[in-house]
Amino acid sequence: MNSRSLLLVLGLSGAALLPATAQDTPAQLNTPPTAPDTVAQQAPVQAAPAQPRYRIGLVNGAVYAADDVEMRQPAIGRSYLLLNGQQRFELDQIKFFDDETGHYIRTNLPGSRRMATMRREKTGRISTYSITSQQYSPGAFGPYGYGYGYGFGRFGYPYGGLPYGGGYPYGGYRTVKTEYFSKDGGPIQDMNYRSLRVALSDNPGSAELLQDVARLRRFSTAGYIVGGGLLAAGMLNTFNGAQRISPLVFLSVPVLLVPTFLSGSQSKKLKQAVQMYNYAGAAAR
Fold it and tell me: What domain of life is recorded for the organism (predicted)?
């Protein structure tokens, strides 16, 4: 056998051995790399501390934060705010504060130097505020001497519930809510027809609603005049002995009730006028 034949035989033998070698070798799996034992574990993320719920601003410009704000009104001594059950501030030091019932400001009453605490009701170009108080009435509405009166600008809608207190001859305490407003962060004003007529004059829709209030006011005035006249005439006839109880006394009652019913419509239209003014201001921005 020559050298060329020998090389051909060796080449064929090597080609036959290669597949067998590949089959005998186990397949290698694509396993993901494992992190080394020396990698440190990440520290747990701590939640951010909760922010205090309420803010208290002082007249001197300082602002405090607290989770609990309580108004203390001792029987003897001056009222004060207690923060978190520890820190105490006299009301004369307070400019504004928050608590679980809302946002309050300390300011002068319109036309007065007396300071008062007012709760903010609505915000906008016209922001509204209120003071709720207990007042004694010798003729408060209701068989047990309790009633509810609604006031605007310190004067209230006439005499509480029914005319002249109603519920005669009972007396007692009633809850009176008196409302105020501020335009564009300006001074506090009485929330009544006269003040709002000036403040809302640049909005036609609000001005139209206030014209409706003016008409209702005229009807209320007429009701007081006519009803008061009937009552006076009936009492005069009764005292003169002409009749045991004059029918004019009974006739005066429904007439005197007319202003009371109309007062609810007046207050509703005043609020609608303020709401329309604020909506127009928000749309303009």
Answer: Bacteria
